[in-house]
């Protein structure tokens, strides 16, 4: 648990600090005053002022922040040339997008590092739907993959065969998730023996799990999610040059396809559970990190780095969404100012941004509760 928390803490802190560093460097380059660059969040432990900027160390050691005058739509002195509010729209856009750029850059560097180390094959992707990737060549791994774990199975386990403990002749060597599901479905309160490997390494082991009845599914289960796994091979020289970008496109295209299926399922049933289940916040991310750390060894390191790249890319994409409170929401105001040559009223921008942040905070709290009860 401690190692998982440490890895989770380092990942989130680095992602947030790099994002804020992007804003900081762009502001400095543009002649915008930065009052504070904080490591962690208040209350403040101590700080030191260097060239007009206070560098502070704060009690809550999680990420960081920059304090740029005028960026929160407070009243600004028109004569203050270092105030963000008094800068031209193109300067504001440069500063606002620099945090996004840093997260995107980190994702590309991490992906490229993994591709070089792994022969330009991606880390395993768990498939829950038939999907045709536009770039690279998908290589389907043999056997059935566990993508939703419990205290017996680990994420990424490959089910090589399964048998009933008291009936060795009942063994099957499954090639599809349906074969395992159908085998388990009719085994009432039975102890089942599984031989499993893992997509991350070549080790195998035996585990025993007892079936129980799931009233929602109306069949016996052992409490795991099953699917297939693919590795995308970027074979051609040009693909290898642009592999991080092509892989990012593949990942988000696949994610969009899955979300579309879940959204349709929610509309059809009138139940928001499928879509809500797909949204994950820091609590859910911690449980995912914990599952990856449990893999152990070099495989765990590579899996964590791959997940970190995905998080960094997701953070970049999320922040460019034109929603109030996000960088994308601030960008809308800057672009508007550039087009009409006049910024919207301060009170309006402040009200919209505050409202957007309130919605985001409430949503984050709801997702945190959902993640806790779903992953615990």
UniProtKB/TrEMBL annotation:
<keyword id="KW-1133">Transmembrane helix</keyword>
<keyword id="KW-0482">Metalloprotease</keyword>
<feature type="transmembrane region" description="Helical">
    <location>
        <begin position="241"/>
        <end position="263"/>
    </location>
</feature>
<dbReference type="InterPro" id="IPR008915">
    <property type="entry name" value="Peptidase_M50"/>
</dbReference>
<feature type="transmembrane region" description="Helical">
    <location>
        <begin position="93"/>
        <end position="117"/>
    </location>
</feature>
<dbReference type="GO" id="GO:0016020">
    <property type="term" value="C:membrane"/>
</dbReference>
<comment type="similarity">
    <text>Belongs to the peptidase M50B family.</text>
</comment>
<keyword id="KW-0472">Membrane</keyword>
<feature type="transmembrane region" description="Helical">
    <location>
        <begin position="348"/>
        <end position="369"/>
    </location>
</feature>
<dbReference type="GO" id="GO:0006508">
    <property type="term" value="P:proteolysis"/>
</dbReference>
<dbReference type="InterPro" id="IPR004387">
    <property type="entry name" value="Pept_M50_Zn"/>
</dbReference>
<feature type="transmembrane region" description="Helical">
    <location>
        <begin position="300"/>
        <end position="321"/>
    </location>
</feature>
<keyword id="KW-0645">Protease</keyword>
<keyword id="KW-0862">Zinc</keyword>
<dbReference type="GO" id="GO:0004222">
    <property type="term" value="F:metalloendopeptidase activity"/>
</dbReference>
<keyword id="KW-0812">Transmembrane</keyword>
<feature type="domain" description="Peptidase M50">
    <location>
        <begin position="8"/>
        <end position="363"/>
    </location>
</feature>
<keyword id="KW-0378">Hydrolase</keyword>
<dbReference type="Pfam" id="PF02163">
    <property type="entry name" value="Peptidase_M50"/>
</dbReference>
<protein>
    <recommendedName>
        <fullName>Peptidase M50 domain-containing protein</fullName>
    </recommendedName>
</protein>
């Amino acid at each position: 648990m401690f190692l998982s928390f440490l890895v989770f803490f380092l990942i989130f802190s680095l992602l947030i600090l790099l994002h804020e560093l992007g804003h900081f460097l762009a502001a400095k380059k543009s002649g915008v005053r930065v009052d504070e660059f904080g490591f962690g969040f208040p209350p403040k432990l101590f700080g030191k002022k260097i060239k007009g900027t206070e560098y502070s160390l704060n009690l809550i050691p999680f990420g960081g922040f920059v304090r740029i005058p005028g960026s929160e739509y407070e009243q600004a002195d028109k004569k203050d040339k270092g105030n963000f509010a008094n800068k031209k729209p193109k300067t504001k856009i440069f500063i606002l997008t620099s945090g996004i750029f840093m997260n995107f850059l980190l994702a590309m560097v991490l992906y490229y590092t993994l591709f070089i180390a792994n022969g330009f094959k991606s880390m395993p992707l768990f498939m829950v739907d038939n999907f045709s990737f536009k770039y690279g060549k998908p290589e389907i791994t043999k056997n059935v993959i566990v993508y939703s774990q419990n205290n017996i199975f680990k994420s990424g386990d490959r089910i090589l065969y399964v048998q009933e403990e008291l009936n060795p002749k009942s063994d099957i060597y499954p090639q599809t998730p349906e074969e395992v599901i159908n085998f388990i479905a009719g085994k009432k309160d039975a102890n089942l023996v599984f031989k499993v490997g893992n997509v991350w390494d070549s080790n195998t082991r035996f585990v025993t799990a007892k079936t129980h009845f799931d009233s929602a599914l109306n069949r016996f289960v052992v409490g795991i999610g099953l699917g297939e796994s693919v590795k995308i091979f970027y074979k051609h020289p040009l693909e290898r040059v642009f592999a991080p970008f092509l892989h990012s496109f593949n990942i988000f295209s696949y994610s969009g396809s899955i979300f579309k299926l879940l959204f349709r399922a929610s509309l059809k049933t009138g139940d928001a559970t499928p879509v809500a289940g797909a949204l994950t916040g820091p609590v859910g991310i911690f449980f995912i990190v914990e599952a990856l750390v449990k893999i152990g060894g070099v495989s765990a390191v590579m899996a964590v780095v791959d997940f970190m790249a995905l998080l960094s890319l997701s953070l970049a994409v999320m922040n460019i969404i034109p929603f109030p409170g996000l960088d994308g929401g601030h960008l809308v105001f800057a672009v508007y100012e550039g087009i009409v040559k006049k910024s919207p009223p301060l009170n309006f921008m402040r009200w919209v941004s505050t409202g957007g942040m309130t919605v985001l905070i409430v949503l984050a709290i709801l997702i945190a509760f959902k993640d806790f009860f779903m992953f615990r």
